[in-house]
Amino acid sequence: MLIFAAVIKKYLIVFLISMVPLIEIRGAMPYAVGFGLPLVPSIIVAVLGNMVPVPFIFLFARRILEWGKDKRYIGGFFRWCLEKGEKGGRKLESKAGRGLYWALLLFVGIPLPGTGAWTGTLAASILNMDFKKSVIFVMLGVVLAGAIMLAASLGVFGAIRLIN
Fold first, then answer.
1. Interacting residues of 71 by C-beta distance below 8 A, sequence separation 6+
2. How many CA atoms lie within 13 A of 122 on its CB side?
3. What is the tens place of the pLDDT at every residue in 23-39?
4. What is the pLDDT of residues 41-62, one digit of tens each?
5. What domain count does the chain have?
6. 46, 15 in Cβ contact below 8 A?
7. Vertex 80 angle, CA 75 and 83, to 5°
8. 37-45 long-range CB contacts below 8 Å, 24 or more apart?
9. Which residue range forms the structural domain that includes residue 105?
10. Helix 117-126 × helix 75-96 angle, to 10°
């Protein structure tokens, strides 16, 4: 029973790490691999955790950021978030043309700093993209990012295990 609780705790940590902006699945997968969690359940838990904020970001973030951009203490951060989303949106539009949703998938799926489900969803919201299609393509991007991070993590931790 104690071992079960320890494993559940590790999966909960994977879930929570994948929800954190800027870290997301890029941090959750190395954690899961580093602690020897089974791969398939780990990627499922990480994808679910990364996707939990997506509908809320799409539906509410833009409104909240617009409301707060002129407020005294939070205005700077809110303006920064809006600018980041607008910049991401413009970048997506300029590169994608008619393949905007595929560009969204790649934007979210290639695990670079400043990309991911949070920024991609905010960009989709700012661009007034279709909610359902955006969520689907963001999820596919999260799966792609998870697969890339899983492969990278297995390579790094596999090499470390060979050294020991």
1. 78
2. 25
3. 999 999 999 999 899 99
4. 999 999 999 999 999 999 998 8
5. 1
6. yes
7. 120
8. 37/7, 37/10, 37/11, 39/150, 41/11, 42/11, 42/14, 42/150, 43/143, 43/146, 43/147, 43/150, 45/11, 45/14, 45/15, 45/18
9. 2-163
10. 80
